[in-house]
Each structure stands twice: as structure tokens, then as C-alpha cells.
């Protein structure tokens, strides 16, 4: 973990930087570069799309290095994105961002966050308490993507 890392709300106009992070993180898993470019082009990183979600950014020394996005839908809060720039993978940034997202989902009133897990990241999510819920049908690229979730329990109240 980097001591100077902070998490902040995304600026609606930093969509291109968020796209760069997502694309670099996807390439990290060894996918064909053309497929990754096509995949990233389908993402909506417009100011309107960023405003429509609860997007937050992990930054170090003023530079965005990771981001996550939540879509609130009553009892279920969907973790729409969680991407970490490759040089920062394995340094605790993703774990901290995920825990932040889970707490934010709780604040939004969700009883359970759910997300489509990048197949290479399933172990990461399992270490953080995520459980397999179901597989989504094959997507446009023919991939079956697991849907994972975690049940939120009420926070413990500490006594003075």
C-alpha cells in the first residue's frame, strides 16, 4: 500500500484517464490488444456517464491510478468497475478500493453489492469475501463472466 494514496470522487471530465486505466488493466491479463481496444471503446466514460454513477478514484501524488464505480439499485448495489493501473496491482490499492466500495454500498442502503468479475480477478475477490452467485450468459465476445457478491451485515457499534 502506498502511504500517500487517497480515494476521492471522480471528476466527470477525467473519463479519458479512467478509460486508460481500464484498458491498461485489461491488457495486463494478456488479452489481445485489438480486443482490449474494442472492449474499452464500448465503455462510456463521458461526463454524463460518470455523473450517473458513484465513481471514485484512487490517486497518488495527484495522479489517478485506479477507480471504481457503483450503481445503486435498492437492496443491490452493482460494482460496475474496479480497475487498477498495472504498476499498482498487487500493492493493496485494489483491496482498499474494494473495501471503500463495499462501505459506500452500505451507505447507499444496499444489502448486497454484486459485480461481474474479470475471470482473472476471481481469486482477488474471494480473498476479500466475495462469493460466486451465478454465471452470466456469454457476452458479445463469447465469454461467460461470473457474477459475485458479498452480503453486508450491519456495522458493529462500538461502545464508549
- CATH class type: Alpha Beta
Output the radius of gyration. 16 Å
CATH fold annotation: Aminopeptidase
Residues in helices, as a percent range:
25-40%
Q: What is the chain-wise order of helices and strands? A: EHHHEEEHEHEE
Which stretches of 5+ consecutive residues score pLDDT under 50? none
How would you describe the oligomerization state of the chains in this entry? single chain
Q: Tell me what portion of residues adopts beta-strand conformation.
A: 25-35%
What's the overall geometry?
globular
Q: Assign the structural class, choosing from mainly alpha, mainly beta, alpha/beta, alpha+beta, or little secondary structure.
A: alpha+beta
User: In angstroms, what separates the terminal alpha carbons?
Assistant: 30 Å
* Major sheet strand order: 1-2-3-4-5-7-6
Global mean pLDDT:
89
How many structural units, i.e. domains?
Answer: 1
Count the E strands.
7
Report on the biggest sheet: 7 strands, mixed
Query: What's the tally of helices?
Result: 5
CATH superfamily: Gcn5-related N-acetyltransferase (GNAT)
Amino acid at each position: 500500500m502506498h502511504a500517500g494514496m487517497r480515494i476521492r470522487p471522480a471528476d466527470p471530465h477525467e473519463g479519458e484517464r479512467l478509460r486508460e486505466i481500464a484498458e491498461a488493466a485489461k491488457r495486463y491479463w494478456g488479452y489481445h490488444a485489438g480486443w482490449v481496444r474494442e472492449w474499452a471503446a464500448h465503455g462510456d466514460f463521458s461526463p454524463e456517464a460518470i455523473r450517473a454513477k458513484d465513481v471514485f478514484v484512487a490517486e497518488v501524488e495527484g495522479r489517478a491510478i485506479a477507480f471504481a464505480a457503483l450503481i445503486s439499485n435498492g437492496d443491490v448495489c452493482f460494482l460496475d468497475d474496479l480497475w487498477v493501473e498495472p504498476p499498482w496491482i498487487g500493492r493493496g490499492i485494489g483491496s482498499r478500493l474494494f473495501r471503500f466500495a463495499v462501505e459506500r454500498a452500505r451507505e447507499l442502503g444496499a444489502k448486497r453489492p454484486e459485480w461481474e468479475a474479470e475471470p482473472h480477478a476471481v481469486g482477488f475477490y474471494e480473498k476479500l469475501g466475495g462469493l460466486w452467485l451465478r454465471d452470466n450468459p456469454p457476452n458479445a465476445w463469447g465469454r461467460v463472466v461470473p457474477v459475485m457478491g458479498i452480503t453486508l451485515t450491519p456495522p458493529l457499534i462500538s461502545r464508549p
